[in-house]
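Batch manifest, entry 17 of 40.
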Amino acid sequence: MTDFVIVDFTGGLNLRDSRTNLGTDSKKVHWTDSKNVRPFRNFGVTRMGGNNDILSGGFSDGFLAVGTGRDINGEFACTADDAGNFIEIDIPGASAGSPLVTGLSTTEKGRFVKLDQSLLYSNGTDEPFYYEKNRTTTTTGTVAINGTINVVGTGTLFLSELLIGDEITIGGETRIIATIADDLNLTVRTAFTVTTSGVALTRGLISYLNSTRSGVQIRGKAITFYSNRIFIGMGNTLFWSALGIYSEWGTSGATGAGFYADFGSTIKAIEPFKEYLVIHLENDQTFIMSGNVDADDFTFNLFFDKSSKSPYGLLNVENEQYFFDDGVFTTAQVGELNQIRLTSDKADVLNPEATGFLDGFFDFDREDEIFMIHNKLRKEIWFYLPIINTTDFEKMYIYDYETKQWFLRELPQSITDATVYEDEIYAVTSDGEFLHEDTGSNFDGAAIEWQLCTQFFNFGEINKTKDIDELWLTLDGRVNNNFKYFSKWNYDATVISPEVPIVEEPLDNLVWGVGKWGEKNWAAFVDLSTFAHIYNGRRSIQLCFKGTTETENFALTGLEFRGVFPNET
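Output type: structure tokens
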């Protein structure tokens, strides 16, 4: 007779290994057929947090994209919607502002890029622009217009106070600056319709990149900010702006604009990593650009034969840059010489040889839509991966890079994009919801349906039946443990025992720590044990725990199988 005690639940999702192979590991719990559960204090398991719509259903259009910028006053969030509007969202005030830009593509999701004090947006179709929330809008002197494209100033300082591409308003009409000749003369792209003089010129909060070179309009979703320049990938050419002047694209030289057109394949994604710029191509090649100030010193070198196909699909976390290419890989800087190398597949457990990635449900036709978010406080990366027969994202595969395990979050909402604001995740949907993620006990009013199923434990020889005297569950006593328990056996997921409710009230007189993140802030463990019925005379046993209502939760920290011995009958 043998006892088995398991207190390590860090196996996470494992779709690759066979059920019998997983069953031989009686020291760690692996998760199968599981959703909406996550690690509890790095070794147990508990229900995930929910979400809530901060706009309370008050936004009528669907969202395409969301991003955050930072200025001297802190972070701010902006969205692009499917009505072609660019809007700031006041997250603390739970409200949406008036459109800052209109007439954008209603179908193309764009990419947000943080600049110094502003936020850049590019959707690959419309001219890229950036929003500087706290820009000074008043200008020196007065101006005169006469129904043409010309603006004449009196006592003005156009060269030092304005940039080509700025939106300006004169006499109630808003235009975009085309040229600036000197401090007293500029032109706009479209003629004014009024004549007036001695009036103020107001600088707007939006500036366009004016990204044109030799008559070619430069547009792209592969866009980033690196070494005080904006870089855009379009086709097989990488373009960059002049140093520190984002609206200058037609010059050349060490501090001027320029381009490199010898990649031989479409640029799909670009992102800085350490002191380099990493360039991912459609043909599975990745290049690294060296040099960061003098454009004459830029060099491009082929680095490895894997690449992201999504412009949103690169994420820097600590010392690694994550991307997806039939698996999750990272560009890492390692060793005493800080060499750059490609790591092995971190999502290998999600890629069964027989069925393919995500058990064959990954939609490779939408690989260019992949995006990922860093949950810094929990040390997680949320991967939004396309699933066949869906159009948005209802499932997130989450990687805990501290415990190196995967788990699944499944929502009732249709996510289109997500961002991080003040270290917390916010997601937007095609139905106009702006969701504060991983908080509360429901999905914006709907119950969190969660489930954890272990591997099939065989406790010895695979084909021999066993009896188990008792099964005890160790639970964290500070959580309202209220859930359903059932089991499966003999490696057959279709043979299911009746569900048994288990209810353990939380223990009293506990000290709660201060912080944002639930179970990580309890002052100390207070364990309790509860008995669970187990069926005997089985070759293997799988334990399952689930909840389907808002009040059902659990914090499981240990399993104890007492008296495991061969069945002699």
